[in-house]
């Protein structure tokens, strides 16, 4: 089994799409934990605020199969096949870490968003502060301590959880 951390984001019908994503992801393996859901401003464009969280999944799927399932889930729930990077999203599912895999090809692992976006490092820190980032050698905590703009995040009162 491989431990996978998946980032989930939505800024269109956010409550529905976040809950749907967690439910759909549970079909790809054992859903271990979910972080707090954070609301954060859209970046790179003018749009509604996003809900973001990270879930940890134990899966026996290969990276290629897991990635295909994520894209299928996004499309099934309204994401355009040709969606641009900076625009509103019904659902955005990104593999942040896939075990200890390191790769430059798509999907790039570990995902560089760890170093750039508060809505990635904060929930990852919440779930696994002592996890060592493959290829980096630093813990999530060490990266989190250097993170900027964490104050733009606002915790959202949970309305569901993995255990439901």
From TrEMBL:
Coiled coil ranges (UniProt) are none
Q: Does the keyword Transmembrane apply?
A: no
**CDD domains attached here?**
HPPK (cd00483)
Instruction: Enumerate the InterPro entries for this protein.
Output: Hppk, Hppk_sf
**The entry's keywords:** ATP-binding, Folate biosynthesis, Kinase, Nucleotide-binding, Transferase
EC code(s) of this entry: 2.7.6.3
Name of the protein this chain belongs to = 2-amino-4-hydroxy-6-hydroxymethyldihydropteridine diphosphokinase
Q: In which pathway does it act?
A: Cofactor biosynthesis; tetrahydrofolate biosynthesis; 2-amino-4-hydroxy-6-hydroxymethyl-7,8-dihydropteridine diphosphate from 7,8-dihydroneopterin triphosphate: step 4/4
Origin organism lineage: Bacteria, Pseudomonadati, Pseudomonadota, Gammaproteobacteria, Vibrionales
**7,8-dihydro-6-hydroxymethylpterin-pyrophosphokinase domain: from which residue to which, for each copy?**
5-129
What would be an example GO MF term here? kinase activity
* Transmembrane intervals: none
One GO BP annotation of this record = tetrahydrofolate biosynthetic process
Q: What class of enzyme is it?
A: transferase
- Name the Pfam families on file: HPPK
Q: Does the keyword Transcription apply?
A: no
Origin organism is Vibrio aerogenes CECT 7868
């Amino acid at each position: 089994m491989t431990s996978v951390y998946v980032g989930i984001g939505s800024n269109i019908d956010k409550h529905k799409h976040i809950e749907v994503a967690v439910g759909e992801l549970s079909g790809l393996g054992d859903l271990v934990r979910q972080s707090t859901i954070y609301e954060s401003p859209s970046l790179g464009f003018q749009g509604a605020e996003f809900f973001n969280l990270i879930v940890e999944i134990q899966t026996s799927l290969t990276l290629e199969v897991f990635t295909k399932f994520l894209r299928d889930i996004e499309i099934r729930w309204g994401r355009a096949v040709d969606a641009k990077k900076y625009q509103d999203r019904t659902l955005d599912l990104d593999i942040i870490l896939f075990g200890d895999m390191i790769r430059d090809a798509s999907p790039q692992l570990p995902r560089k968003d760890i170093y750039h976006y508060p809505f990635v490092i904060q929930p990852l820190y919440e779930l696994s502060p002592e996890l060592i980032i493959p290829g980096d050698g630093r813990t999530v905590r060490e990266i989190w301590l250097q993170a900027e703009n964490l104050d733009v995040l606002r915790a959202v009162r949970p309305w569901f959880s993995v255990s439901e």
